[in-house]
């Protein structure tokens, strides 16, 4: 059988332009999502994105940062979508005109982890009482200190516990300026307390002496939201592709994909696009 050869020598300039445009179009079917380290380090994106790619043909390139840094990426126009977990900061982002609309997607909760021996006596359901005991004992506490959603929540809990500046008032307090996984590694190696999102905790393998000590307080709910970056601020934003991603996340298919992500049979996130207040 004779092989068919493409007549490259006869290909016109117009033909080359068509091929080049087609290649460029294929290459451009991706979006950049600025998100949190918790969605990345928990393994959620590794579970979700292949399903979204199959459904849409769109690739997603994730930049995992603290929520504050992720929102700053959106402000600079360096991302098409932000997917984060600090509702107050998200509303500010919208009020400043950097986002189009915020959509709730899912939630889990924060927990305080610490040494199983619990030298501060923090164990219980009350996050404020737990932190007060950590402060009173001067026990080691590792903070992310990175302006993430988790860090912002931690500072709110310290404030509710009557501690405005824990880095100055809690003897064992140390900020690592790092993501959730590294912060847990430091806490594990130094027998320290830390605030963690449950998703990252469940996927964390280097627990050492750590265990969950404070959980179940309604104040520990950790809500996630997603926003398309406003093309009126940054015209290069891939609005249509970005909105396709958002629409999929809050659709039945996306919400089901979130619900089915488990570790050891335990769900890491609970979809609530339809039920969030």
Automatic annotation (TrEMBL):
Q: Which organism was this protein described from?
A: Caldimonas caldifontis
This protein is called what? Answer: Tungsten ABC transporter substrate-binding protein
Q: Which SUPFAM superfamilies match?
A: Periplasmic binding protein-like II
Residue span(s) of domain PBP: 25-252
